[in-house]
Amino acid sequence: MWGCDDVLSAQGALFLAVESLLVDCERWFRTVRSRNPSMVVPLDFIIEAWYFAPKHGVTFVEDVCPGYLAQNFVQVISSRSFVHIPYDLLCSTIESPNLTVDSEKQLCEAILSWVSASRQSCEQSVSNSADNQLSLLSKVRVCLLPLGFAAGTKRNCFEFGNNAVCMILNLLKDSLQTLLHTVTDDNLDSYRIRLTEYSKKIVLSGCPQLTTQFLYISALPTDLDAVFKRTIVSDVNDGCLNHYNGLVKKAKTLSFRNVRIVDLSKCPNVHFGAVILWMKWTFPELRTFIASYCLLFQFEDLQCLLLRCPWINEINLSIDTSIILSKYSIISSRSEVRRDVNRNLSSYYMQSGLYGTSGNPVFSNISKLILEGRNDITDMNLLEISMLKSSLCYINIKHCTLLTDDGISTLLLNCRKMHSMVLSYTSFGNHSIQTLCSLDPSDSFSYHKDEHAHVMAFRLQELHLEGCEGISCAAMSQLVSNMNIVKSLCLRETSLADGALCNFVGSSLEYLDISETVVSMVSLAPVIRRNSNLSCLKTAGCRNLLFEQGEVQSTSGNKYGRFLQEITSTCYLEDVEMGWAFCPVRVDDLIPSFSKVRRMTVGLGTTLPENILHALPEICPFLESLVLRFQVISDRVVRNLLESSTNLQVLCLHYCLGNLTSFSFQTMAPALRILRLQWVTPWITNDDLTILTQNCNLVELLLSGCKLLDTSSQEIISSGWPNLACLQLEECGQITLDGVDSILDCKALEEVLLRHTVSMKNSIPMFNRAITTNNPAEEARILPSKIRISS
């Protein structure tokens, strides 16, 4: 039997053992935090430890956990347990200097989701919940939020969203003076992009208020004196890059070696010459640079980027490729209202003398180049791009209309390592096909038994030729017969016919688009059967799929069934676009082959029965986008779609028939972001529009034939959807009778189309006044980057 001394001795030993165990736990936790860049401790465990520690006097948890969550915040917010994080732990995490996020938008979204979950729980009083919400949102650096996102927060947090929009608009008026005043007050933190040693991705997309100064102050050491900071902020301009280069060296700009991706898309007010210098000094391991929708980024900037940041291997410089028909009058473009930019930087770009050296290894890393929509790219520029021949594998020059077949052919002749090409709506034609199908003298596959392996076309993995009308039938047949391992093939609106498609023997297809061609089942059926991994199939406009025979006869033994029978017996599709010959009758006809479909377009050539349309949420439980053209629809169908398809983000109804009423849209659709109603809802009134704003949060709206709308509709749209980015109104009554002033209150608008609306003559002066106004109170009004008016 134990005595008193034995008990005390055992308690002391137990205390020492527990103390030793806690020390080991603390050492392990701190080691994990310092050495492991990714999260290895489950969030649920950290939450339990946070609750456990204060009750049992464990102090190190309070010191270590916030920092650990901060450096892994991108992973933390993706966890289902994120909304269960205690307020004090979340607050400490956000205040940590190691807080690592891809963008300020990502942080704000996380806080709003936590706040929303907190409101629904009964753990806190209403007053405490409101105070916590304001406290957390106050930590967001609102001047770094995308304008469209900031406007969208007004729906649920009006005061926060309104203040954010006002601050962004004020920065657009004069960001330089604001920053200079901030430097004087030593309060730059709220304007700094969050950069830490753990940052991997920097996303600043959609921030028109962002200037080059924001980028540089984020990379400056915090201990610089105010005078030197003012010098740097004020000297970032278009004419003194060499001078500024010296200032950056003197300031010893911070370097973040883990950053791999920088996205500056839709940032029209940054000077890209200075941006390239910023990336050179700040991100020495950068791999991907994205600057899409930036019209001021010229080919000379691309040359400079290649020279100054040779470690980059992916570049995306795409711009808007939507077609503007001649019947539209373009009265405003964002580039027209910006200040003139001095582009005379060629001497600065070329001063090292490296650029232009044939085969220079400094460019050997560029493997992927996206120039979609760049109408300033010429054949000469393609010749200069050929310098990347040792590394370039992927190129996208879709809608680069100045390029010729000869220019593209020369690029293909020089860059023989390319295996992925998006050449849609270019002059790609017979000459380029001859290059693809000619023997490659430098081919490393000389040992291959297949004679086609010695041509460039054999190694193609992705080829998109949509709208390339300069290809003859013979050339198309030659090209298709040489592609054996292609995974993504788009021949939409080309000369593709049965004779060519019958020559295709590949079995690796995952994406196939043959819409608006004359192929029939005699050539398509064998392709479908051989390619069991096909997840995307687009055949809209292929009328010959209805016929038993196409232009070539079926070979003996090559039996084939109906179109629907072939695809349902072979494929598990995720993206479909169909019309002719797509005639399901029973729900079972589409299960299980359509059970993974996320995007569906059904158009001319078929009429889906109501039982199929009503069962779409059951047939396609993951449906995200649905486009119906010339279909017969009803309230029962549309309402069931909105109620049951919880992932539905895009709904487009074009020229559909049926007895549709306002009852269709009197239901919540929280996921819906894009709604296009083209000549299907003539009965819509302002009351219907108001209900629609309450039930869904749209970023794009198209209305055609809604003749009961009037001038009050503008206010309903702008206040109900403050984050609307695209608005198209066609034949919508008297909605523009008194001009378009309320439409311009949608600060996030990027595109406006007004067609055949009443008194358009009042709208044009309104836009012109917005462009030319000298009123300081109106200077910050943001014009859409594209305004189209058709009378």
TrEMBL record:
<feature type="domain" description="BACK">
    <location>
        <begin position="46"/>
        <end position="155"/>
    </location>
</feature>
<dbReference type="Pfam" id="PF07707">
    <property type="entry name" value="BACK"/>
</dbReference>
<dbReference type="InterPro" id="IPR032675">
    <property type="entry name" value="LRR_dom_sf"/>
</dbReference>
<dbReference type="InterPro" id="IPR006553">
    <property type="entry name" value="Leu-rich_rpt_Cys-con_subtyp"/>
</dbReference>
<dbReference type="GO" id="GO:0031146">
    <property type="term" value="P:SCF-dependent proteasomal ubiquitin-dependent protein catabolic process"/>
</dbReference>
<dbReference type="InterPro" id="IPR011705">
    <property type="entry name" value="BACK"/>
</dbReference>
<protein>
    <recommendedName>
        <fullName>BACK domain-containing protein</fullName>
    </recommendedName>
</protein>
<comment type="function">
    <text>May act as a substrate-specific adapter of an E3 ubiquitin-protein ligase complex (CUL3-RBX1-BTB) which mediates the ubiquitination and subsequent proteasomal degradation of target proteins.</text>
</comment>
<dbReference type="GO" id="GO:0019005">
    <property type="term" value="C:SCF ubiquitin ligase complex"/>
</dbReference>
